[in-house]
Amino acid sequence: MAFIGHIIKGAIYLKDFVSKEVNHIESQKDVLKDLLTKAEDTQFGKHYDFKTILESDDIETVFAKELPYFDYNKINEAWWHKLHEGESDVTWPGNPNYFALSSGTTGKTSKRIPVTDEMIEAIRQAGIKQVFALKNFDLPADFFEKDIMMLGSSTDLQENNNHLEGEISGISASNIPSWFSGYYKPGKDVAKIDDWDKRVQTIAEKAEEWDIGALSGIPSWIELMLQKVIEHHNLKNIHEIWPNLQVYTSGGVAFGPYEKSFNALMGKPVTVIDTYLASEGYIATQVRPETDAMQLNTDNGIYFEFVPFKPEYINEDGSLTNEAPSLTLAEVEPDQDYALIISTVSGAWRYLIGDTIEFTDVERAEIKITGRTKFFLNTVGSQLSVNKMDAAMRELEEQFNTKIPEYTICAKRSKDDGEFYHYWYLGSEIENPNEEAIANALDEALKDANKNYKVARSKALKGVKVKVISPKVFYDWNAHNKKKGGQVKMERVMNEDKFKDWEDFVNN
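The chain above was modelled as a monomer; its predicted structure follows.
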């Protein structure tokens, strides 16, 4: 059946041949105009007078001037709550059929983010874009005949007030086209298993039945699934059971922190392709092998704005100040951190998604995820972003010959001397760790990477304290908080209250 793979690969190359190059800046203008036009008769559109905005000579500028920033709490309290009370045409025409339950890295309750049919279609189109981009990675024809393991949240969606609820990965998987179902693993029956441990155990038991060519999912949970398969079959690496595994599509978080631990489970190299699927939409996907940056989906139901990620624009809770300026795609610069703002076909407007990004190639609209607005540590002026922390972890991995896939940090005063310290918990299986030496190395790495941190260390930040624990503790913590599998990401930065709960959990 090799000819099938050749046909599919040929179709991908043909699609690229006939498709035109996207003008990202012009596409964004068109997307914004389309969003405003479709929503002008909604409650939100009337309130903010979308009709007048559409009549202006500079729609992007007027849009940014007339609408405030929203985060989930702000837009939910003012608008989205009406959807749960039976109202229609609130921030988007009609009433959504789905709500994405954001697993979230902060907050005690799940966010309920509307997912419209238009968003389902936008996600589908972005997925097709990813498939067609595979031609750039020069994969063999037989790759296109192999199974694809998509490990997300359960597809057994819950009915609530005439709509269905679940994590976005579960909603997306429940809407896969029929032609794809033959390739999709673990299959609909296994994907519906709500208990994550039971679902992974079932995958391990059925692993021999499948010829997996590609994996897709959050790195930490993919790793745990692979470890379970390896243990169940008493293997040295995953390629002993899935010899044709060639591609891994990561998503939602930077792959860098997991690269070393992920590769340790492989028998041979695989192509890693980064994607960026959030509860609010399919943001970006990697389209070239020469870079691990991802291209924004600029022509597909999402309008982007970018706020310079500077301390003066960020409130303590990670929200934006009213004075924070926004830039369009035409105004951004490379190698600068920006808080990402989106407006979407699901009725999110000037919405702070909570991620920070930087552009690696403005013309191509290619970005990297650099962190979270809430995970920006600026106690006593240290100004540490997640990308700086991740980079320090990579240095520690090299220096101490270990893997550190997980970590968390809190800045607080010591009970002993009343001074501020950074308290780190590192997930590593290193034997007999010299925590003092690791702390010193971490401190030096951060001084070298961040001048603001170096200044803080010479003044109000007294020092660094490190505890090394098993990575499993981090996964158990998420399970303890009923956040296991799916789109779940570990909190990199905790406030003192959350950190106390964390330390109590670790020590008990």
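Residues 1-12, 104-108 have pLDDT under 50 and may be disordered.
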